[in-house]
Write a structure and sequence with these properties.
single chain, about 120 residues, mainly beta, six-stranded mixed beta sheet, four-stranded antiparallel beta sheet, 1 helix, about 5% helix, about 45% strand, globular
Length: about 120
């Protein structure tokens, strides 16, 4: 089965940084463009960053200039470097295939990011 395992979340003060990791299966990493999503309580899940197989990236306006998505082919891992964090970034963060290109069939557990003083 394909799998997506997110890690790296935690509690951080406003202005701080976190680096999230997404360990993907061989088939997912090799075939699909990937993305990071987040869902805050009572709000719709949103796509915040995506990266193509060729390394092209795209970001939601809310995170541009602060977040960076990248991938490590050898480790089969997608990362989200999050800088200058704000309280409104608080959410559960998920990785998955890029929903603007591929069909999303299932979700992992996600990793909680809490930005608070």
């Amino acid at each position: 089965q394909e799998q997506l395992v997110e890690s790296g979340g935690g509690l951080v003060q406003p202005g701080g940084s976190l680096r999230l990791s997404c360990a993907a299966s061989e088939s997912l990493f090799s075939i699909y463009a990937m993305g990071w999503y987040r869902q805050a309580p009572g709000k719709q899940r949103e796509l915040v960053a995506r990266i193509s197989r060729g390394g092209n990236t795209n970001y939601a306006d809310s995170v541009k200039g602060r977040f960076t998505i990248s991938r490590d082919n050898a480790k089969k891992t997608v990362y989200l470097q999050m800088n200058s964090l704000k309280p409104e970034d608080t959410a559960v963060y998920y990785c998955n295939v890029d929903s603007t290109i591929h069909r999303v069939d299932y979700w992992g557990q996600g990793t909680q990011v809490t930005v608070s003083s």
